[in-house]
Amino acid sequence: MASGGKGLNATGEFFRRRDEWRRHPMVGNQLRNATPGLGIAIVAFGIYLVGEAAYNRLYRPSGDHHH
Q: Which residue spans traverse the membrane (predicted)?
């Protein structure tokens, strides 16, 4: 490292080689391609749950007990 270059010591080289699998095209983005609409569906379902909870809190009849 005293030479001023980008030299890697043995530990750095070891970890660089160990992480090469992360850049393989079969590994990256595979889950996103397998479930193309899952993110939008989760957001929409979350909005539905919040809306339903707000509706039930605002418009629940006063005599209604949680059965």
A: 34-51
Query: Which residues 6+ apart lie within 8 Å of 1 measured at CB?
Result: 7, 9
Residue 33, token pair as written in the block:
């391609």
Taking 60 as the threshold, does the pLDDT of residue 7 lie above it?
no
Sign of CA dihedral 54, 56, 61, 63: negative
Alpha helices in the chain (DSSP H): 10-18, 30-34, 38-59
Pairwise CA distance, residues 33 & 39, whole Å: 11
Indicate yes or no: pTM above 0.70: no
